[in-house]
Design a protein that fits this description.
188 residues; alpha/beta; Nucleotidyltransferase, domain 5; five-stranded mixed beta sheet
């Protein structure tokens, strides 16, 4: 381990700390826009047009993330991220002033299990924990959100069917498509 790293205070790229001009240690953290907004994030484009963005989240180790514009009735972003990256994107859209709602698949609302093995059930516990993390995060940031009960057949579309129905031609993972299906077709 590098010895001079021990002398530096712990820093979080968005919360500050230990850097000149950062808030004192006893003050609450201040969120600054993450790099996405500085790059000209899609949400800032929607803000100029007065549009509102609905975000879909498919929780898990690989988090599905989708942004949907209900006015234009089109997907703006469909991809797979780590949970912290997805949370940063949600904050970016909120800070841009264009976030209307976050819908996430909430495994805690699932009433059917099917014939699953022990490993799948352990994985389900992990997903339920991630759903709680999302609900807590969104609540703590004052973001309007809605947990959606998983529906048999309403997810796990293949890329061909997804592209045909939504018009999204970019590369997607199963998780990203599931997130997009949570918001696709919603009305403003």
């Amino acid at each position: 381990m590098n010895a001079d790293r021990l002398d530096k205070p712990a820093q979080h790229p968005r919360l500050g700390g230990g850097v000149a001009g950062s808030p004192p240690a006893d003050s609450p953290p201040v969120l600054a826009p993450a790099p996405g907004l500085a790059r000209g994030h899609r949400a800032s484009d929607a803000s100029a047009a007065g549009q509102r963005i609905i975000i879909g989240i498919d929780p898990g180790v690989s988090t599905g993330y989708a942004e949907y514009d209900p006015v234009a009735r089109k997907l703006l972003d469909v991809r797979t991220l780590r949970i912290d990256e997805a949370m940063d994107e949600v904050i970016n859209v909120k800070l841009a002033g264009t976030l209307a709602l976050v819908r996430y698949e909430d495994a805690r609302l699932r009433t059917w299990l099917g014939a699953k093995g022990r490993e799948a059930l352990q994985g389900a516990g992990s997903i339920k924990r991630d759903c709680k993390i999302w609900a807590d995060f969104l609540h703590a940031h004052g973001i309007q959100h809605r947990g959606v009960k998983p529906q048999a057949g309403a997810s796990k579309w293949d890329a061909t069917r997804f592209a045909r129905v939504t018009g999204w031609t970019g590369r997607t993972s199963e998780h990203a498509r599931d997130a997009a299906l949570l918001v696709w077709g919603m009305r403003a």
